[in-house]
From TrEMBL:
InterPro entries: PEBP, PEBP-like_sf, YbhB_YbcL/LppC-like. Belongs to the UPF0098 family. The keyword Plastid does not apply. One of its GO terms (molecular function) is protein kinase inhibitor activity. It comes from the Bacteria. Pfam families: PBP. It comes from Paractinoplanes pyxinae. This is YbhB/YbcL family Raf kinase inhibitor-like protein. Keywords: Protein kinase inhibitor.
Length: 178
């Protein structure tokens, strides 16, 4: 059912968890988008911790993607590149306007909302439940080599020759019809 990884090469999985949201559960108000007008939304990126990445991992990237957005191409809510291999967690809110919770050397790319930050969930009213694929990508390079102005899709394209593993949890959100 519209799995964003279905046509990509299979890679080993490892573990990602969150104190903010559990796999298959609904995002809290903090992860909803006040920027897009959701009452109580705070656009706070979820806390993430990961372990068990494949041997040879030299960096990580984190993405949050909604394949259910009514755009024909989904909606990228967050993309972070060049997280050092020594880092295995990000605090809640790391993806603010300044990336204040990101480790040195890591950077955020512009989302489909136009800002280089985490943009919370804001599914259209009555459109049904949306899924948010929160993914940590283990890579075999310290720097993925994309500019900070690149799109998350371009970042993902550049993973192809460098991906060693992938860890994903899926959150959901829905805005009831008025």
């Amino acid at each position: 059912m519209n799995d964003p990884f279905a046509r990509l090469p299979e890679v080993p999985s490892f573990t990602v968890t969150s104190d903010t949201v559990k796999d298959g559960e609904v995002f809290g108000a903090a992860q909803m988008s006040g920027l897009f007008g959701v009452p109580g939304g705070q656009d706070a990126s979820p806390q993430l911790s990961w372990s068990g990445a494949p041997e040879g991992t030299k960096s990580y990237a984190v993405t949050v993607y909604d394949p259910d957005a009514p755009t024909g191409s989904g909606f990228w809510h967050w993309a972070v590149a060049d997280i050092p291999a020594s880092v295995t967690s990000l605090p809640e809110g790391a993806g603010d306007d300044t990336g204040s919770g990101l480790p040195e050397g890591a950077f955020q790319l512009p989302t489909d909302g136009g800002a280089a930050r985490f943009v919370g969930a804001a599914p259209p009213a009555g459109h049904g439940a949306h899924r948010y694929f929160i993914t940590v990508h283990a890579l075999d390079v310290e720097k993925i080599g994309v500019p900070a102005t690149a799109t998350p899709a371009f970042l993902g394209f550049n993973f192809l020759g460098h991906i060693l593993g992938r860890a994903t949890i899926v959150a959901t959100a829905e805005t009831p019809a008025a």
